[in-house]
Specification:
The structure holds four protein chains of four kinds.
Chain A: H1 7-17, H2 19-22, H3 25-51, H4 58-80, H5 85-90, H6 94-98, H7 107-132, H8 137-161, H9 165-181, H10 192-200, H11 220-244
Chain B: H1 20-34, H2 36-63, H3 73-77, H4 82-106, H5 109-114, H6 119-153, H7 163-188, H8 192-217, H9 227-239, H10 247-268, H11 271-274
Helix pairs in contact in B: 1-6, 2-4, 2-6, 4-6, 4-7, 4-8, 6-7, 7-8, 7-9, 7-10, 9-10
Chain D: E1 2-11, E2 14-24, E3 29-34, H1 41-48, E4 56-61, H2 70-73, E5 76-79, H3 91-101, H4 106-120, H5 135-147, E6 153-157, H6 165-180, E7 184-188, H7 192-198, E8 201-206, E9 209-215, H8 216-222, E10 228-233, H9 237-246, E11 250-256, E12 259-264, H10 267-279, E13 287-290, H11 295-306
Parallel strand pairs in D: 3-7, 3-8, 5-6, 6-7
Antiparallel strand pairs in D: 1-2, 1-4, 8-9, 10-12, 10-13, 11-12
Helix pairs in contact in D: 3-4, 3-5, 4-5
Classes of the chains: A mainly alpha, B mainly alpha, C alpha/beta, D alpha/beta.
Chain lengths: 256, 276, 301, 307
Amino acid sequence: MPLRPSPMTALAALLQGYLPRLVQLRGWVVAALPMVVVLGGLVVSILLRLNGTPSGGATPMALFHLGLAPVMVPIMALVAAPAGIREDMEQRTLPFLLLRPGPVWVLPFARGAGWFLWGGLWLGVACLGLGVLGLEVSTHFLALLLAYWAELAFLSLLGLLFRRGTLWGVLALFLWDPLVRFLPGRLQWFTFIHHVEALAGRSPQGGEGILAQAPVETGFWASALVLLVFGLLCWAAAGWKLHVTPIGLSGGEAEG
Amino acid sequence: MPIHAPTLPPRPLQGEGLAPALVLARFEVRRILRQRLGRFFGFAFALVLLVDLALVYFKPMAGVAGQLLPQGAAFQAGLLGKVLLFLLWLQVAQVGGGLVARDTLYRIRPLMYAHPVRHLDYLLGKGLVAVGLPFLILLPFILLPWGVSLLMAGAQGPVWPTAPLHLIPAALVVSFLMGILTLGASSLASTPGGGFAWALGGVLGCGVLGTLLSGLMGNPGWYAVSPMALAQAWPRILCGASGELGWIATGLGTLVHLSFWLGVAVLRTRPREALA
Amino acid sequence: MIRFEQLEVRYGSRVALQGVDLELGPGVTGILGPNGAGKSTLLKTLLGLLKPNAGQGWVLGIPLGSPESVRLREQVGYMPEYDALVEDVSAFEQVAFWGELSGMAAPQARDRAHEVLHFVGLDESRYRAVSGYSTGMRQRVKLAQALVHSPGLLFLDEPTNGLDPDGRSRMLDLVLKVRDQLGASVLLSSHLLEDVERCADHLVILDQGCLKASGSMNGLRSRLARRCELRFLDPLTPGQEAALQELGSLLATRNGLYDLELLEPDPVAPFRWAQAQGAVLVQLTPRHDRLDEVLLRALHG
Amino acid sequence: MITLDRASLRYGDILGLSPTSFSLPMGGGITGLLGPNGAGKSSLLQLLCGLLPPSGGEVRVFGEAPYRNPAVLVRIGMVPEGDRFPAGLRGDRWLRMMGRLSGLAGTELESALARALAMVGMVDRAHLPFSSMSKGMRQRVRLAQGLLHQPELLVLDEPFNGLDPEARLELMETLRGLAGQGKHILVSSHILGEVAQLTDRILLLLRGRLLAEGSVSEIRALLDRHPVELRVHSGDPRAVARWAVEESGLAGLRMEEGAVVLSVRSPRTFLPRFQEAVSQGAFPFTALSPLDLDLDAVFHYLVQDHA
């Protein structure tokens, strides 16, 4: 007689079961996103060096602050998040998982964890690539990794809560984040990009606030903690939501 | 007294119908007009048009003793300005993104090819909407200021009497760029939302790439990678205003984008594959 | 209506239809075969979308592969298996749209849409958006779309898919109505043998691109001499069941239905046997091949 | 043992299942679950499989409330309707994951997998990705998913949908075999002929209520408003008709070509007399077929009478 699997068993089973998805189209898109920036940067800097034009430390910083942090990591999260628990809802395979005796709250994280590890791996490769151009690797990697962690968790939660979760995610990452950067005060606290900059240092050609305020400063460890805990909270909220919501065959909810 | 049992007579033979491409286009237009988002965009465009008109007249009037004075090339090109084009990109991505993707989602395309619709008809019909929509929206932005300027100040107005000759071709090229790009993007997606995302992703992604490349290479010619930059460049070039992008880069960039996205659309809508 | 001589269709190097000799007249023809048997290739060929690589074919008198065959799409109607409906538009508007695409002028197409929707029995709901329709209504819209241009040949792919018993029976009635009132030839592809049994006059069995059998329903379902099916009012006792061998050899039993090969071809004998055994017969029917038997024989020889 | 005690299911304000009570004994066998669209079949199945909690009343399967209850879930296997599959995965890999989620591991898992695949005839094809399988193959994999943990109760929602005729016949054979091994199988289907081939025991739902339960012949006997129609083929149908009008209990009579259709109020008293007459050669006789004793007729009469 089979027994109820423990949360760890369920996590491992899902992680392993969905592993092949990472090395299919969507997985390679996630991998390619940071690599495009880094490879582009490497090619350009080699060309410049061959021309004899000296490239300062500005190039890797520009790649990080213009390409990776504000554009590529959010897009990675946007690409990866719908392939998590949202995918099971959309292709109506969630009932198969709910029909199994394992714990339900572990599902959102178990479906997202693979995408986090895979994306994290490629962010690491990207940071090493930028390291060749003179970027300080460890803090920048930590910043990207934590941003990806928090954004992926946030988008997964949105995907679980709203049918148009991805749209709300786009609005949050590409409208709210850049807009609030120009606004004064503590509101900046509620953007991902602020914490990335607190971890990795401010962009050299960084945006001047429209209302020209002194930038808000947040400590390194405070920001790291904020991103980490925010991500954890999002996963937990997603798990809790799935745990308390009865979900039937049509994928819709029924009221208890 | 006979009983006329209800039955289905053969189809009527009288009357020649429209070409399939036109039927398709009209069906799409009706659908677009019914959308709520369409009304929102209509309002936004009206607002931009008003601001434009105000700028056209009050700016030069305030400057030189309240007189309407002829303006330079940059001013003419500005009639198809940045804000307008940005709004238009959004609108075209939203509408155009759904053109092919909605058929994919509802699986209508196989049925079209089962009716007498050819591949060319399908592309023409969809293309007509995708290209025609931005063109029709751009047209009042050219003709209205021009007409009012002519009425109020004749040849001495701020808008050149010959401005439409420069701007209408520009609007046409821009419409083709926008329309064909979204058509291709739409054929990549399987839902209208996905089409919107592909279109915006294509435009913004190429935009970021263009900015990065031109910044890193120190050559603004690389902006030609960005469709947004291309759309902004065409009115300037055709009006003879100076800009970051030259003739060659603009033409080449436009040609590459057009052929790439058209190729995508052609490949992804073939009848053989559609009929599962 | 359809005549194929050694027809062969390939996708690149993959053969999809091979050496098909077929002649089909008017009426309903059931098409049976496993998934991937070549049904969708057949459809594309009928619509003139695929050209035969070898052999010849005529559909409604038009030679396949000739320049004329582009006109086939004006004369063939297709009802797909899956939902192929514009969800945000009413049934009326989309049937009119299909009419216009088939070459009717707008006013004619609108009149025609009403006529066709009446024919398939879709009433007031025709003005509502399709997204709120039930499965049965959706199937009707799909059928209306296939009928709008008065095709001489109709290809119905799984028309009863997803319908409940009532809806299924009404859809099959509609198929028969199409045959009887419109005089169109109907190709009915279905996985449900019951549907084919009820509607089809002819049968075509395909497997892996080859024609395995074709002919009239009655011709293929030969009557089996001395075979009959018996059912009793009350279940037989084991003793009675054993005694059945006095009557003939028992070939199969399923849910109280006994498939028997009688010793002598006399329909009264089983009644005498039942009288003697104290059982009461409610059914005694001569046994034809069931459609599943015809199918299995055609597929596996 | 399945017991429902005034169990109901609402989706928001929409009715899925009205308060329903019944109990179904377990043990080897097949029960058909029938009903028109919207009758509440899938609501009932979802309650039984513990996907949804009842909005009111109680559901008990194996003596416990099934909603997300691991103790019940390990004893139930379910195959939901529809061609649902995880895109991009391979069949065996997915099944292995499902097995792990049921607490199987190691050699136990591998042998369970092999057994389930053998049962559905997919041993050599399970390694294919779902996207390159046919609908029928995917349905078999889903079925293997339901069998993997050797459940005592197997719930199948429209299991034949999308299968070609041959695959249908094979699947029916498999199900009969499983029932013979002591598993209880609850099959919901729209195709009455196929249910009739599988089983005689049915549950019939209509408009969210349980309308009938039992064997087809028992239920037919209760439908005494509808006389039984018997078609008698004969070389001389008029002779049959002449004989029949002399008999009592004839409710109606209709002549056809080469046959006569007799409507009979009580087949239990009429048929023995008919049998006697045939045996004695009272009229020429070739065949006797009842027109409305089967599941099809029972279903339509029930739905007609109570709609």
